[in-house]
């Protein structure tokens, strides 16, 4: 019996050592998106998506600066930011964006807010996004041009704390034009799914919020995903009707600052013209 108890405590100890370490092992998660709607000038266009940084008591300034360097080395064409920039206290918002403003992307950086940004200070977060030179795309959208060809990038407000005015984003999007959507919460895909005319307008959707479950049973199942749909939007690529949803594990953590088989991710998606 004593050996069994000793073994149990050894396993618990190893679990906590690994779970405390995993948040520092940021992986690059690569996808390719193939479509005949991708304009020729956007072939091999590189999208880098970051979300759920949760800069705060468990995430140091040096770690944030290393993240910015890591992203810039990828030489992204655009960077998409999926919200939840800080954790626990609005005092972290300004220092967070002091570092994030060093992101470099050829065709711009586009950002939405997440639920934590509303809980801390939505007005200050929006102010810092704009001051950093980023495009704020909470219920806004912008055309991106390469030469005379274009794609459109837009976002919706957080599903828990804001409005989602998606129809207004796509009024000028023609058939066969590529539209990329950012929604902090992947559950918004279920709302679009029930509106056939709307989901046909969105080609790709990037989301976070779930943290990949953060603490999982060896990556196979997560007791908590912050999604109403359980494991469906835990992580990875999910195809809903004609739309591809890319759900990232995010970068940071909420309390406790542990991850287990849900490594933090930088999502890199390459557009490939069929």
What do you see in this structure?
- The chain has 274 residues and is α/β, with parallel strands linked by helices.
- The protein has one domain (2-273): Purple Acid Phosphatase, chain A, domain 2 (4-Layer Sandwich), CATH 3.60.21.10.
- The chain is built from seven helices and twelve strands.
- The protein has helices at residues 2-21, 61-72, 93-100, 115-131, 166-169, 188-193, 196-199, and strands spanning 27-35, 45-50, 78-81, 109-111, 135-136, 140-146, 149-155, 179-182, 204-207, 236-240, 243-247, 265-273.
- The strands form two sheets. It has a six-stranded mixed beta sheet, covered by helices on one side. Strands 6-7-8-9-11-10 form a six-stranded mixed beta sheet.
- Helix 5 (166-169) links the parallel strand 7 and strand 8 (179-182).
- Helix 2 runs parallel beside helix 3 (93-100).
- The longest helix is centred in the N-terminal third of the chain and has 20 residues, at 2-21.
- It is globular.
- The chain starts with a helix and ends with a strand.
- The mean pLDDT is 95.
- Tell me the number of helical segments per DSSP (H or I, 4 or more residues long): 7
Radius of gyration: 19 Å
Sheet having the most strands: 6 strands, mixed
How many structural units, i.e. domains? 1
Average pLDDT rating: 95
Just give the CATH class. Alpha Beta
Quickly give the structural class: alpha/beta
Percent range for helical residues? 25-40%
Quickly list its features.
single chain; 274 residues; alpha/beta; 6-stranded mixed beta sheet; 7 helices; 24% strand; globular
